[in-house]
Amino acid sequence: MTGKGGTGKTTVAASLALALAAEGRRVLLVEVEERQGIAQLFETEALPYEERRIASASGGGEVNALAIDAELAMLDYLEMFYKLGRAGRALRKLGAIDFATTVAPGIRDVLLTGKVCEAVRRKDKAGWPVYDAVVLDAPPTGRITRFLNVNDEVAGLARMGPIHNQAQAVMRVLKSPQTAIHLVTLLEEMPVQETMDGVAELRAAGLPVGAVIVNMVRPVLLGDADLARAAEDSGAVAAGKRRTAVAKALSQAGLGGARRGGVAERLVDPLLAQAHEHAQRVVLEREQRAAIAGLGLPVRELELLGDGVDLGGLYRLADSLRKQAVPGGTQAAGGDAAQGPYDGEDLYEAAYPDGAGPDTADEAAEAPEAPEAPEAPEAAQEGAAGPAADGDL
Ligand SMILES: Nc1ncnc2c1ncn2[C@@H]1O[C@H](COP(=O)(O)OP(=O)(O)O)[C@@H](O)[C@H]1O
Ligand SMILES: [Mg+2]
User: What mean pLDDT do residues 125-143 have?
Assistant: First the structure.
């Protein structure tokens, strides 16, 4: 999930995670900007660098959350490739990792995208994907293409070996139909322009664009004829007639006499001014909607919640997404076609072709209890009775 800052990227990512978790599915919601936005939204304490369950959905569904810490991800990475367990910790004491992750933002992005893709590809002991979907509260539109494409650069720099393989495996996930990059916008000129630029950049980079999610949509309060009348800058005569008509209507509604200087008359001008503003806004919003439609992408709309977004509001937005068909939640339903070309190309396998993986005791402990399954995971996934395995990002 990307979008211009402040448009509701974190809120919409969390709503999407909740929507995707319905009907007993398991979703991971990830944040990479070190702001603890997810914890705030779900009204829980700050998230450690560890996956933990933060919300439930219908049918036993659950949302787990992870706030990726770039420095700890760096240690993971060093351990994975160089088994620098203790040496890595020594480096950290020296501040070397801090240095590497802040001075070279590219390194940071490699670590963050690598961790996200690892979660996407992770399988349990029986070979099932651990998560049905992984939702990333990604960097804003202005940075998203570079962020997602950073592994292409790395793969070019390291021509072969485990780092090259890892970078390529990440790019394969990010460019596959398993991934969908959704863009949050408001019906305002700047965010819509940013959305259009972002979509063009993503498309040029060959990255899979998903849906545009228009957030904080306000209702239209007038019918078309009234809107047209309220929008026009009327001449003095028409304005006079209109003021009289409105004063009469207010008076009929019991708001005092319609005569000059009465309560009703004093309400008229502010009300007409508000109607004018409203009508102008609706006209502008229609222009923005048309621009968005021109992108040829699926569009979803989320209402502006009057009281802000609390936990209840989050579930309401999730519900709304479900009613509109959750983006990324339907196309792979009932099958695992989206994962077809990537079967057997697990990130860790790519890094460790000989099967000598890193010490993943922590992850093993986190994985759910899975029965020993002698048959190949691919065969198990053909069955209709298995868990939904869209694995959408
Ligand atoms: N649909 C909505 N209705 C009302 N308030 C919203 C909605 N979506 C987001 N907000 C509010 O807008 C602010 C910015 O949202 P946030 O998700 O933090 O944006 P971002 O991650 O893009 O910076 C927050 O205060 C949030 O509660
Ligand atoms: Mg945010």
Answer: 97
